[in-house]
Amino acid sequence: MQTATLAFDLLLSAALIWSAIRAITVADLFRAVVMFIVFGLLVALVWARLDAPDIALAEAAIGAGLTGALLLDAVGHLRAIQLVREKKEGRR
Amino acid sequence: MTLTLTPSLVYALTGALLFAIGVAGLIVRTHLLRKILAFNVMGSGAFMVLVGLGQRAGISDPVPQAMVLTGIVVAVAATALALALSRHLLLLTGNMHLPENDPDA
Amino acid sequence: MTAMRALLVILLCSAFGAALVYAILQLPPQAVDLPQQVSANIDESGVAHPVTAVLLNFRGYDTMLEVAVLLLALLGVLAGTSVEKRRRAAGERPTLPLLRGFTRLIVPLMVLVAGYLLWAGSSMPGGAFQAGAVVAGAGVLLHLARLLPAWATPNLMQRWGLAIGFLVFLAFAALPALQDGSTMLQYPLAWAGALILLIEAGLTLSLGLLLAGLFLCLSDDGMEFEK
Amino acid sequence: MHDLSLHAIAWLILLPLAWASAAFLLGPGRGAGLAVIGLALQLLLAISLAVGVVDQGPLAYQVGGWGAPLGIDLLADGLSSVMLLLTQVVALPLALYAHAYFSQNPKGVTWFWPLVGYLVAAMNALFLSADAFNIYVTLELVGLAAVGLVAVAGGVGPVTAALRYLLTTLLGSGAYLLGVALLYGTYGTVSLEVLGPLIAEQAPLAVAMAGALMLFGMLLKTALFPFHFWLPPAHGGAPAPVSAILSALVIKASFYLVVRFWLSIFEPLTDYAVAQLLGLFGAGAVLWGSLQALQQTRLKMLVAYSTVAQVGYLFLLFPLVTGTPEAAANSAVQGVIMQALAHGLAKAAMFTAAGAMVLSMERDDISRLGGLSSHMPQSLFAFGLAGVTLMGLPPSAGFLAKWLLIDAAIHSGQWGWIVMLIAGGLLTAAYVFKVLRQAFLQVEQDAHYRPLPRMLEWVPLVLALASLALGVRASEIILLTGVR
Fold it and tell me: Which helix (H) or strand (E) holds B41?
């Protein structure tokens, strides 16, 4: 029993570190943000494991949800503007 | 070492590593969105150290938990401000990178 | 940043992370037992849930300042982006009937959930933060469904909504500070529970508006650029 | 009397929060009157608090009535009272100046007043806090408010500067937060009062790392060389009243924390080598900042680099108090506080004077200053007087500060720092005279000047005179700083 939960904790830790590194390094920005949202949800899971349901709720809603929405909106905005730029340059 | 690896301690250690990853990303990556992502990773790492270390005896501790709730809101506030400025810069310059040298300096 | 410098930073951060792990593994037991003090005083806090007691009573001062942080971030967002760039009518992009229907259905439900979370917070997990986040989620959804336009400059009503949570908090910080013998944010024992619920109600509205506001102020700017 | 001082502690925080919120409710561009009234009341509160601290010693205030470590405690001692006095003394004239400045140049006034109100509240809260996590929250408040103020000007330069500032300040407070987490993890409390004896008793490696992290975070925020890269564009590019607040006050908040932590809870961990290194960084700052100031072509950038240089002197504190005789350490603390006050007043004067000149010339270019001596003698005089303080000439407070620091260096046998103090004064003279010489040149034919409200010329003069007067009436301040 003890080893099973420890294995789960270690696995979750590994997933956290992997998703954090991916979010920072993956080439495509959209995928990076998606990775970050995954990271946020994993963190919410950590709070649940740490007997902190209050933080788990807040993390899922604010840390992953709202921050994720803000970031996705920014990526969309960035893409729209880059598209316009490319069109303009193509016309020239 | 007679130390037992409690879940709290595991996550405190993970938090320490996440903090280091976040700091490296914040400094090394040049795209502003990456920096903002890295900042959030760094913050989550610090929060995990705070709660994980606080509870390493195995008893739930509401004090660091309340601190982290405060911290999460502060982090989203900072993220929104950073995004606002980054988007403003995007409109002005067409990209989301900080120039190596300041335009006015 | 050159590759050499990046490598150096990564090496330094790795060394730092390793040192941190090593240091954490050597910690002696804590000298102060704060959880015990929290449970010893919880009867005087006005709420039964320890996290809410810390958040709104024992360390309520932190929470008050933190709401100011959020207000400040919104001010920074408003100050940092120019008004002209942000003006855009909600109806210009294609409307999504399915999303609209879904939103109309779910938003009242979210408001209900927020009310429940707020009420539950005094005795179990939940409270103003989570409830505020749900309100903000409803706001974001309404915006995505084009039922709520992006904000340029908040009008008087919106400003009151954004600030009311902080103002209620500030008022209950200031009232006891006016009297000799009590300090700011010191609630009278008999009223503590009711005051905390009142503060939380204000916070739920304001946190919801502030968090949604951060999104609504940022969203859609730059569409002028496209035209 | 006792109760009045205690009330002052609470209202120094509550009052600015209240008027900032009221200014926000009033709407864009409004709230100047509220700010002036609020700041005037705060100045009275700060004075009454200082009097109370001198009479009765350090005053503790238990927020919520719980008491540390369960609740959050505030503490007003000599050091915090002095910083509170400086903040209100500088902020009040700056508010008057800002009102006049934005009447001429409304760009950026939109949310200026609420931002400034929250900034002042946050700094007051920071100076009064005796709780490491509460200090983190106040640090974030200070940082976000300051960044918001830099961004108000708009344009590529200020937005870039604001972003760089924001990311730096977030890295700094992140490092600080991890330090707090390690402290809580080690001892189970964040109350500075409770932490002090615990750290003295037993400090594992994690606590040393916490100290290093917090120090690093504060060095970033104070812009000590070589972490100064973000400061010149942020301070130089903001509207003049903002530049003045940032340079005179905001960087002092993080410096105050370095002093507070180094002299109290981390005292058992302080290290000779680290102290010498901080001193060397300081020397580097004086040298590099002054040389960069000399090379600037824009007036406000010159003043901003001067801040980089002047910050250097503050860090002489560490080699002068670490492992030195008590007499030397006392002189060093007094000298550094005096330097912080002198620089606060003089730099506010310099930035406001520079702002008035730039506004009148409608461009920021040192080579076009010619003729200003006859057109704006008052502003130029204020600039020169502020320069006297920064150079450290008698009878200014800057002179007294350097005198005390030299005294400390002599008593601890560290002669090298004296050379640095004198060289720094000469370099300062060089860049101040660079400006003055240009201003006394012949009027250019095409020069035209925009008439300005008198307030824009009076405020710098009053601030500059205050930086001189402080040197004459310093004994009260020294008495106050001795209260620990």
Answer: helix B32-54
Who among A21, A39, A52 is closest to B51 (CB)?
A: A52
Q: Does B38 touch chain D (CB under 8 A)?
A: no
Measured between alpha carbons, how far is residue C185 from residues A38, C59, C195, D313 in Å? 39, 10, 11, 40
Number of domains in chain B: 1
- B50 interface with A at CB cutoff 8 Å: no
The secondary structure of residue D247, as a DSSP letter, is I
Domain with B16, as residue range(s), is 7-93
Each residue's pLDDT tens digit, D413-434: 999 999 999 999 999 999 999 9
CA distance D311 to D248: 10
Amino acid at D124: N
Residue ranges of alpha helices (H) inside D264-371 are: 272-295, 299-314, 317-321, 326-361
Residue C177 to residue D11, Cβ atoms within 8 A: yes
Would you say D57 and D106 are in contact if contact means Cβ atoms under 8 Å apart? no
Angle between helices B32-54 and B62-93 (to 10 degrees): 180
CB proximity under 8 Å: C 47-76 to A? 51
Check whether C92 has a pLDDT greater than 80: no
Amino acid at A15: A
Write the DSSP assignment of C43-59 as a string of letters: GGTS-S-HHHHIIIIIT
Rounded to an integer, what distance in angstroms lies between the CA atom of residue D34 and that of residue D36? 6
| Average pLDDT of span D101-119 | 91
Chain A, residues 50-89, CB within 8 A of chain C, namely: 52-54, 57-58, 61-62, 65-66, 69-70, 73-74, 77, 80-81, 84
Cα A81 to Cα A83: distance, rounded to the nearest angstrom: 5
Average pLDDT over residues D96-114: 91
- The pLDDT of residue D278 is 96
Helices (H), C81-191: 83-86, 97-120, 128-144, 156-178
* pTM (predicted TM-score): 0.95
| Residue D104 token pair | 């001429």
Assign residue B37 the CATH number of its domain.
Answer: 1.10.287.3510
Of C20, C58, C180, the CB nearest to D70: C58
The whole-number pLDDT of residue D1 equals 43
pLDDT in tens, D192-229: 999 999 999 999 999 999 999 999 999 999 999 999 99
pLDDT for res A92: 62
Domain-by-domain residue ranges, chain C? 47-226
Measured distance CA(C208)–CA(C220) in Å, rounded? 20
Alpha-carbon Rg for chain B in angstroms: 18
Contact B14 A78 (CB under 8 A): no
| Cross-chain residue pair C133–A84, CB shorter than 8 Å | no
Nearest Cα to D190, choosing from B95, A22, C59, C156?
Answer: C59
